[in-house]
Structures are given as C-alpha cells and as structure tokens.
Amino acid sequence: MSIEIRRLSIVDGRDVYEMLQKIPPNENGFVNSANGKNFEEFQQWLHSADDNSKQESIIDGWKVPQTTYWCLEDEKPVGYGKVRHLMTDCLLIEGGNIGYAIIPEARNKGLGKRFLALLLDESKKLGVDKALLTIKQVNKASVKVALANDGVVDKIENGLYYIWIDLR
What we know:
With 168 residues, the chain is α+β, with helices and mostly antiparallel strands.
C-alpha cells in the first residue's frame, strides 16, 4: 500500500469529486464544503480553494491562507486535509492549523496517522513552527493519531482536546 499527499489542483477530476461526496459536510468539526455540490460547482470550488492557498494575509479579520491536500492510497483519493498557514485568536480556540478526514471505507487502516504526518511536513514547509489541532473529545481516533505524531495535550476544555505538535 502506497500513501502519498497531493496538493489541490484546479484540474482535479471526478475521482476527487467522488471522494469528497463520501466525506460528510461536517463531521467531528471538520467542514467539507464540497460535499453536496454538483460537478460544475465542485470545479468552481477548486478555484476558490486554490485562490485561498495563494492568499498572503488575513482577510476580513478571520479568513486565513489555507492549502488543501488529498491523501492518496495507491493513487486513489481517500482523504481530504487542510493546512492553515496562520492563526487567529478564534482559531486558537477552535480550529487549529490542521484538519483532515478519511473516507469511511478507508478508516482504521493507519491512513490518518500517515496523512497527518504528511500534512505536518507541508505545514513546516509553509513556515508553521508549532501546529495546533483542536479535536472533539468524542473523536478518540483523531486524538490517538495526533498523539502518535508527537502531539502533546495542552488542555481539554469546552469539549475539545488542544494538542500541539512541535515542527522545529
């Protein structure tokens, strides 16, 4: 089994579109705004997400630059991840630097752990020294994945684990 990460491209096709339809629109706090879109709307969404990755500063006091990645297992899209380049006070409370999801049929195979490791590598390339993951307490699998990637629980508050991962 080969695992790799690929950055979103405006020419991503049906394989990515179909994968995104398998990830709920909001599961454990991870928002998948591509779920439920038709293919034409998905193509427009790709352009918007690509523009967001090229953003250089915070817009409107809250919208930070964010790059989207796909997790590929044997060249087939099985996961969706986002890396925020910057943090705001609100993202320090809920959101963090990294969010990701694996399609239901590919879970419990160790993909999350490997995908997060690759997202952490990309975060470091983007200049992030220390990544924050805010994970709902009920999402035990993601907590386990973060800890397996050298995460340290800073606190548990408001139903969330605050887990920091040092990238230096």
